[in-house]
Structure formats: C-alpha cells, structure tokens
Design brief:
The chain has 222 residues and is an alpha+beta fold. The protein has seven helices and four strands; from the N terminus they run E-H-E-E-E-H-H-H-H-H-H.
Length: 222
C-alpha cells in the first residue's frame, strides 16, 4: 500500500488530492512543523535523507519531490488519466507547467516569504531598522515585480484554458495547485488575476480535493 508522509501546510496537500482523484488505497502518516522554526520534524529524515515532504513509499520504493511523485503515481495508477497523449501540443504544455511550478514561480514565493520573516526574527535593536529597510527594498524592487510578472503570465494562460493543458485535468494542475494557493493566501488575486481565482475555485470544488483536505487535516492555503 502507498504511504504518504504528509507535513502540515505543505506541498504534500497536492499529493493527497491526486491520490483521491486516482481512487487508490493509501494511508497517511502525519507530521507537524516545529512551532519555532516552522521546519519539518527530524522524523522525516528516517524516511528520506533530505527530510522533506512530500515523500511516498510504495512497496520497496521511496519517492520524494512533488513532480516525481505526481509522475510516478499517474504512470503507475492513472490508467491513462491525467496525462496527455504523447507527441501532442498538450503534452508539451504538460511538461512545461510541471517544471514551471517549482522552477520559476515557487522560488519567488519562497524568497518573498523569507524576506518578510527576516525583520520579525530576533536581532539586536539597532540592526532591526537596517534589516527591515533592506528586506523591504528587495521585495519592492525585485521580488514583488517579478512575482507579479509570473502571475500575469499564468493568468493569461488560464484566460484561454480551463485547465493547464486545456480541457482535461492533468498532472500539471496538481503540480501548480500549491504555488497558486500559496500566492492566493498572500496576495489579493481577485482584482488582478480573476482567471487564477476561477481555476482555484474549480480545484477546491472537486470532491476528490475536499476528501484530501479531510484526510490531510488543517490547511491554511485552501
């Protein structure tokens, strides 16, 4: 049986959604973040050397990285679902968005979060205004404009497509769900990215997604 090692408020939520869409038998092992560092607990290192989530075990196999897990599950259990036919325009879109999610969009969101939290960290009193000023400038002059550019790019694509590869839900949608949920939790997308908002609403309305939420527990980004 598949075991999903699920860390709260993490990328593993999209794996729960996929598992529910596939209708396969699986179990969930829950992990909580350290309340001070917000990092994954040491127990995850017993599952994978990098101690990250999501990780799945399936028989003798241990698979990490969301994209690799999504590809594995679709290939092993998808019964030709959630992946476009080979050598089609849809397959090229599928490959692109599978890589784009963590290669282009997510790094900007992570860096924005880091530079938001740095001024809130313990530091000498005289250092705080300097750190706050530097972080604010990095965000306003570099991170925010580039994140907005990326979101506008996604918005334009979804203005012409119901799902990321066209009319059919695919692995690219599972992969893109976490960065767009994270962006939506920190940015008011309704005025600037209505098609991203509509896409998120379609995702969240799916029965399989809702079942995944029930099994995963509290999730701040839905």
């Amino acid at each position: 049986m598949i075991t999903l090692h699920h860390l709260e408020n993490s990328r593993s939520q999209r794996i729960l959604w996929l598992l529910e869409e596939l209708g396969v038998d699986y179990q969930v092992k829950h992990y909580q973040r350290d309340p001070k560092t917000m990092l994954a607990p040491p127990e995850l290192y017993k599952i994978h050397p990098l101690g990250k989530s999501p990780v799945i075990t399936d028989g003798e196999q241990t698979i990490a990285e969301s994209g690799a897990i999504i590809e594995y599950l679709i290939n092993a259990y998808g019964r030709e679902q959630f992946k476009p036919a080979p050598n089609t325009a849809e397959e090229m879109q599928y490959t692109y968005w599978m890589h784009y999610a963590e290669g282009s969009l997510m790094p900007l969101l992570v860096m924005t979060l880091i530079f938001t939290r740095i001024p809130e960290s313990p530091m000498p009193f005289l250092v705080r205004p300097v750190a706050k000023g530097i972080c604010s400038r990095v965000k306003s002059e570099f991170l925010t404009p580039r994140a907005q550019e990326q979101l506008a790019f996604v918005e334009q694509h979804l203005s012409q497509n119901e799902w990321f590869t066209g009319e059919q839900l695919s692995g690219a949608d599972f992969q893109m769900s976490f960065p767009l949920e994270a962006a939506g939790s920190r940015t008011d997308l309704k005025s600037t990215c209505p098609n991203i908002v509509k896409w998120l609403e379609r995702v969240h309305a799916r029965k399989a997604y809702q079942r995944g939420l029930e099994k995963g527990g509290p999730y701040d980004y839905a």
